[in-house]
Design a protein that fits this description.
Elements lengths: L2 E6 L8 H14 L6 E6 L28 H16 L2 E7 L7 H10 L19 E7 L17 H11 L3 E7 L14 H23 L2
Length: about 220
């Protein structure tokens, strides 16, 4: 059964544009047939705890002698990794908070990026290599090339590094900017662009879902 793992991390449950785009993707995925399943993990409503033992950063065979992470913490990490490994496609809603990832999403990343298990360490360990990952980036302002804010988005590059370089996934980024244009007076003149980018992201999400479902 073709499976999608959908992660949402926006704390805005009513106006979130990243949630709107991930929902559009998931809806188009489900429309491909009854066997196209979606597992939704809402990292804001049900946050994943931070890793509570540094040794969990490593695969079991790479942990130092005497390490003893708690059974509950290890089981939680195992569950998150197995959930990811079962997914044919990963969909990540990644709003930009203070130029970086929401802490809830970062906690999930810390659980699933495990050298020697999901990422290489002294060998080619990439069980997710080539698997599609779709990152839906939503940003309150704009980060255009040549603008004063160029390069200040530290969320998308981090996800590309972890999901793409480390885990070997095939990462596609869908971006919608100026999500605060309808609420912040200083951005009011950018509302047209904001709405156009959202509409394009919704369209791109639906088309990408159909394409990946047929891959």
């Amino acid at each position: 059964m073709p499976s999608l793992l959908q992660l949402d991390s926006s704390m805005d449950l009513e106006r979130s544009r990243s949630r709107a785009v991930t929902a559009a993707f998931a809806s188009a995925w489900r429309e491909q047939g009854a066997d196209f399943t979606v597992t939704v993990r809402d990292l804001h409503r049900q946050p994943v705890p931070h890793l509570d033992d540094a040794d969990l950063h490593w695969a079991a065979h790479l942990r130092p002698a005497g390490s003893a992470p708690s059974v509950a913490a290890a089981a939680r990490q195992d569950g998150l990794i197995e959930e990811l490994l079962r997914a044919d496609v990963l969909l990540v809603g990644a709003p930009l908070y203070n130029w970086s990832l929401p802490s809830t999403l970062k906690a999930w990343v810390d659980h699933v990026h495990v050298p020697g298990r999901t990422a290489p360490f002294d060998g080619a360990t990439q069980p997710l290599a080539g698997r599609p990952a779709v990152v839906v980036a939503s940003r309150g302002g704009s980060y255009d090339a040549g603008s004063p804010t160029e390069g200040q988005d530290h969320a998308v590059p981090a996800l590309q590094l972890v999901l793409g370089n480390a885990l070997g996934m095939d990462v596609t980024v869908l971006t919608t900017n100026l999500t605060l244009a309808d609420r912040v007076p200083a951005l009011a003149d950018q509302r047209g662009r904001a709405e156009a980018e959202l509409a394009q992201a919704l369209t791109d999400a639906r088309e990408l879902a159909v394409r990946l479902a047929g891959a």
